[in-house]
Design brief:
This is HTH hxlR-type domain-containing protein. The protein is α+β, with helices and mostly antiparallel strands. It has two helices and two strands, in the order ββαα.
Length: 67
């Protein structure tokens, strides 16, 4: 999906030990700033997120299918 959407380039390297290389495209690199912001938001709100998850578990011990 990331390759299809133009965010990465996948290059297969032939040889005795074949390997695959992935590289962000310019469009993919443009997401690094917004991702940093999302990661920082998560760090700031981590305890709240865990509290909400624990509250959603309730008596069943499982998250609902919707959550």
């Amino acid at each position: 999906m990331l390759e299809r959407d133009g965010l990465i380039v996948r290059t297969e390297r032939p040889g005795q030990l074949r390997w695959v290389e992935y590289e962000l495209t310019q469009v993919g690199r443009s997401l690094l700033g917004p991702m940093d912001v999302a990661c920082e938001w998560t760090r700031v709100h981590w305890d709240e997120l865990l509290d909400a998850r624990e509250a959603a578990v309730g008596a069943t011990g499982q998250l609902s299918e919707a959550g």
